[in-house]
């Protein structure tokens, strides 16, 4: 009865016989004024809700385009195999061959007479060359001016001996070309580091002539490049002054920018590299005209350790791999933190009364650098080095 009564009251109130025509119009308009917002507001809110969902979806897609597995597969990958950790490095190459385009084997150096020699502990393993070539990778022989004696540093004088003067330079180039031809390498990677500034002109002539000789045989030339953000900066006198990027880039296929080691053991605790520094080095290369297709931005996959000594720190290890650091963390328990500025992981622990600190790279910090490098428009990345790296890195680089 109550339900029926309510219907009768509503019908009576809105029925036309209760008012003259003019009144009925006013009532009808009043009803429309009342009903319009009630009907349209839910639709408006619904449309706004749909729009918000679409915006969030687009934002999610754009963000994750750079942080999802394989997001950086468009970057070419150059990876180094060091002779002192060759087994682990080769195993990494086997597992991740689909993500690697170029391989450099660290087997050769200049002996005291300036001849190309194999490091005493290096194993020239043809299995590595055969595997890489079978999987479509180009293999370059790295030749360095790092002596084959523990504790000795990069030798600028021995490089001067083989590149100063046309005859010496020609003989050295012939030896490098013969190495590539006889061993079946696809090219040569010149890693002559910490050269004196006065070798700048001779080094440019050497790279020009070597590039022409290798290219005439269908071989590649890559050069390890010291990072710098300008010329004649005293804080960047690390061998970079001897490398004239403008003069050498027309004759090379790849320039491997060593954008790691921003903080050395002597500098005290800090990141292997910051994204801002990598950006500045690459920006300078682009500013002076180095083509993007020749630029490989370096990524150090390692960590460095310091011991706290009073108010100072003493560097103790500059080549911890990620796998090594995981073992240290598991042994000493605890967890690592992350630098708020550079977003790289930091692990601190105590041992026999000493405080230790390790700054290193993991897949998360490397992914952020990959995101940066991909936005710079360069050809690829140069990984130093294979063996013991964070395996999740390859999910980012997967082809």
Plain-language structure description:
The chain is an alpha/beta fold and 399 residues long. It folds into two domains: 21-64; 76-301 and 367-397, TIM Barrel (Alpha-Beta Barrel), CATH 3.20.20. The chain is built from twelve helices and 14 strands. The chain has an eight-stranded parallel barrel, surrounded by six helices. A five-stranded antiparallel sheet has the order 10-9-13-12-11. The longest helix has 44 residues, at 21-64.
Structural key phrases:
399 residues, alpha/beta, TIM Barrel, 2 domains, eight-stranded parallel beta barrel, five-stranded antiparallel β-sheet, 12 helices, disordered N terminus
Regarding quaternary structure, what we see is single chain
Classified by CATH, the class of the largest domain is Alpha Beta
Beta-sheet strand percentage?
A: 15-25%
Number of helices: 12
**Which bin fits the share of residues in helices?**
40-55%
User: What is the CATH superfamily of the largest domain?
Assistant: Glycosidases
What CATH architecture of the largest domain do you see? Alpha-Beta Barrel
Order of helices and strands: HHEHEEHEHHEHEHEHEEEHEEEHEH
Strand order of the largest sheet: 1-2-4-5-6-7-8-14
Low-confidence stretches: 1-40, 59-63
What is the residue-mean pLDDT, rounded to a whole number? 88
Please give the largest β-sheet: 8 strands, parallel, barrel
Quantity of strands, as a count: 14
* Tally of separate domains: 2
Report the structural category: alpha/beta
The CATH topology assignment of the largest domain is TIM Barrel
Taking the alpha carbons of the first and last residues, their distance comes to 74 Å
